[in-house]
Amino acid sequence: MKKVNLYEENDFNELHMKRFLVHDSPYFKILNFNFKAGQELPIHSHELEGQVSIMVFEGEGEFLAKDGTMPAKQGDVLISDISEPHGVRAKTDMRVVVTIAPPI
After folding, report:
1. pTM above the 0.70 mark?
2. Inter-residue contact 10 to 16 (CB < 8 Å)
3. Which CATH number does the domain housing residue 51 bear?
């Protein structure tokens, strides 16, 4: 078993989003991204089979897609194929947890 407290392990950076690798295994990968208001993870995709989930556990912003945006607030989870373009933009300080399966 493994326990990680994201509030203790990852903070914010004034210049760019802050990334923390929570877990990496042959089955899935978990990442924590912290964004200050206005920071973003630009729209991107991966040429792989698999899925990605992006869960907002603090703050508000937008999920980004090639055909527009969707509001993203605490408790929201975006799930998509990893080959589908996706991204995140923070309106307030925002913490998200990303799960990728299988890991890239």
Report:
1. yes
2. no
3. 2.60.120.10
Q: Helix H segments across 25-96?
A: none
How many domains does the structure of the chain reveal?
1
Geometric angle at alpha carbon 35, from 99 and 93, rounded to 5°: 115
CA distance 19 to 76: 19
CA 102/CA 41 separation, integer angstroms: 21
| 9 in a structural domain | no
DSSP state, residue 47: S
- DSSP reduced 3-state for 28: coil
Asked if residue 97 lies in contact with residue 19, where contact means CB atoms within 8 angstroms, the answer is no
pLDDT tens by residue, 42-74: 999 999 899 999 999 999 999 999 999 999 999
Cβ atoms 34, 88 nearer than 8 A: no
- Tokens 């408790």, residue? 75
